Amino acid sequence: MPGRGFYQLEEDALYVQIGMFDPRYRFFSYLESQSVQLELDRQARLIFIEVTQPRRHWEVSDDLQFPQAAEVADLRWLDFRDTIREPRLSTNHSRSLLHVQFSSRLPLRNFYLTRDVIAQLDASDRLAAIWINDIEDDLAGRAIASFRKRCRREAAS
Description:
The protein has one helix and 14 strands, in the order E-E-E-E-E-E-E-E-E-E-E-E-E-E-H. By secondary structure, it is mainly beta. The protein has one domain. The strands form two sheets. It has a seven-stranded mixed β-sheet. A seven-stranded mixed β-sheet has the order 6-9-10-13-12-11-7, with no helix packed on it. The longest helix is centred in the C-terminal third of the chain and has 15 residues, at about 140-155.
């Protein structure tokens, strides 16, 4: 599944596209905190993440590492239009990796949402964290628009 993070420089916000933007994957509901919004489609699949806390406020950590192994699964969210606890946001020095920690519970399983986005679940199958790797700086939405265009071209071929 295509997807990745684009840091909107003029808005100081991170946009993470999960999958393709097309009629099958339209916004239906959300889960949100003050700084993070998870957007879901009608089938309860995560389709977009928005992080509004500027990256200059993300906690920098030397020992962050994108998980090396994950499984492929069809994950669905059970809660809709709800407020979630404020996650802890940690990044590496180059701010190209973001760890969005929703819970202090130990994550037991890793699942690919895209090649560069991994969800971690705890023993109760609750979301513990989301990892976003290879974040690209974007000015005026050019990079994300180019990414979407490239995905549509690849899907058509």
